[in-house]
UniProtKB/TrEMBL annotation:
Protein name: Uncharacterized protein
SUPFAM superfamilies reported in the protein's UniProt record: Osmotin, thaumatin-like protein
Coiled coil spans: none
Keyword Protein transport assigned: no
Length: 118
């Protein structure tokens, strides 16, 4: 299971409908729109914040996209931007090599309850 903040900013929860010992619920209670740096903010037609873009999407630079010379876990550490999002949602992917704390497995067939923006 991969829970990513790379394309989403609203709170969510993800849990397996049939409980299993090795399957823990994953969630993100934080709303990243409230901590989004001004340069990453996406506004709606009314001027209100509707999303927080990734630094990769906004700047398209190797250090934010983990590409080119920054294309390995050793050369692409978390950035100040990804750290902001990670602080809000510790179990979610916040940048390309955020595997250690953001990848989970659960044996058995898929039967999940996913709730966005509760």
């Amino acid at each position: 299971m991969l829970v990513s903040l790379m394309a989403s900013t609203c709170p969510f929860s993800w849990l397996r409908k049939v409980a299993r010992a090795e399957c823990t619920a994953t969630s993100c209670a934080g709303n990243n729109q409230f901590v989004c740096p001004a340069e990453l903010v996406m506004k709606g037609s009314d001027g209100g914040v509707i999303a927080c873009k990734s630094a990769c999407l906004v700047f398209n630079q190797p250090q934010y996209c983990c590409t080119g010379d920054h294309g390995t876990p050793e050369t692409c550490p978390p950035t100040d931007y990804s750290k902001i999002f990670k602080s809000q949602c510790p179990q979610a992917y916040s940048y390309a090599y955020d595997d250690k704390s953001s990848t989970f497995t659960c044996n058995g067939g898929p039967n999940y309850l996913v709730t966005f923006c509760p």
